[in-house]
From TrEMBL:
Source organism: Propionispora vibrioides
Name of the protein in question: Nitrogenase molybdenum-iron protein alpha chain
InterPro entries: Nase/OxRdtase_comp1 (IPR000510), NifE-like (IPR049939)
Residue ranges of the TM segments: none
GO molecular function: oxidoreductase activity
Residues annotated as domain Nitrogenase/oxidoreductase component: 52-453
Taxonomy of the source species: Bacteria, Bacillati, Bacillota, Negativicutes, Selenomonadales
Amino acid sequence: MAINLELPEVAIRENRLGSITGYQGTIRDLGARVSGCSLQNKGRCFSQASACSSGCAQNYLSGIVDAAVVNHAPIGCAGDSAGANEQDKWGRKVRGLEYRNINILNTNMVEEDTVFGAVAKLKDAVREAYRRFQPKAIFVTTSCVSGIIGEDIISALDELRDEIPVPLTPVFCEGFKSQIWASGFDAAFHAILTGIVKPPEKKTNKVNLINFRGSARQQITAMLARFGLEPVFMVPYSSIDELARTSESVATISICGTLGGYFGNALEQQYGVPYVKALQPHGITGTDNWLRELGKIVGKEAAVEAYIKEEKDRIAGELAELRGKLKGKKAVVGMGPSFAHDYIRTLQELGVEIIWGASWHYDPQYDSGQSPETVQHLLEGTEDIPFSVADQQVFEMMNLLNKLKPDLYIGRHPGMTVWATKLGIPSIMIGDEYTAYGYQGLVDFGFRVLDALTNRNFVKKLSARVTLPYTDWWMEQDSFTFLQDEVG
Ligand code: SF4
């Protein structure tokens, strides 16, 4: 599938990949519909709350250490930046970086701006961002309001180029355009690809590692060093210079297929940097596959095999013990698609039975044109798994969890995981994307699961004292009452 970096914006996932946010069935049925081209989205006639691609783009870009973000929007659209700031500061602290706030400004669009436009405000905000932060690049993120009134952001930035000597890059990520917040990642990466990445001048031993703000950087750096490679962790905590030179790397690899697919495939198509198309490195099967595919690309198969054997031998005893203790426990997984499929597989490796999987959208294919490797792997498994797709509609999951009553809920978003806890279900929120990363990570995760299952006092006490906002009427309905018929 050709990616066009000549265009100022990337199409949303619904239009580009055929992605959906409404489905109920099983993982096998979902896979069969994709291969039979009969996958259609189901709408909902009621929606509680969700997230937005604009917040997703601006928060991700705000992690670049020497860039600034100007959010051309009403102030409320920057509300998520408080959370991004808190995450960024934690990451700065553990990496020994300067402990400061993220470089983000909002243009505070108000009602009269929707009538008269706010280009002057935007230009002032870009000037102020340059004065205040002295960044190496400024990203301007759009919003529903700036998009709907048709603000000419490209011209506004063009008019500032003589005045401000750093890349000024628009990021078209209006929330209303896509129901899938991951479209915001694509918008952020499109801006990096079109405004920051330069053609290669040489080849390096670096591997672009697309991730969020999590841990495991030291382990990955040490592991890649065994193969003669160096990671460029991106985008959070990378620099504009590092991003500009990603075209010189020997490969691109991602901790999350949903996150990394657009950048990885675009860099491969534009500059020939191979993108590792593999399972993600959670649990044994994922790590084996991730490393072996990287090893093939860089010609280090033997070194990779030696590392895999060494690590597996090291954890074999503890893994067997964990499997014995976790066997037969029942879990529900609810996450973004790549992670949902990944953690279903990882929990199965620990002996946990997955009685329901839910993903917050579903991509039938990535920008390579291939369907996600994580889904293919689940389709090959012996068990079919009940599965649903929703843009994190908490009311639906609460109804479902109340009926299924699993031993454990595993999520990646606090806005959902906290409700499972309030329902009295032991829950784990996987905030750090390197949870269960690699072989030792699987063992550590297994003990965390065991801990959640055996120390239930907090969950019991909390659920006994909380009054849920959902009525008995709703809890007695079919969980998917508001999911409508398929639409084209
Ligand atoms: S959906 Fe639109 S109005 Fe709401 S936060 Fe996102 S960009 Fe702003």
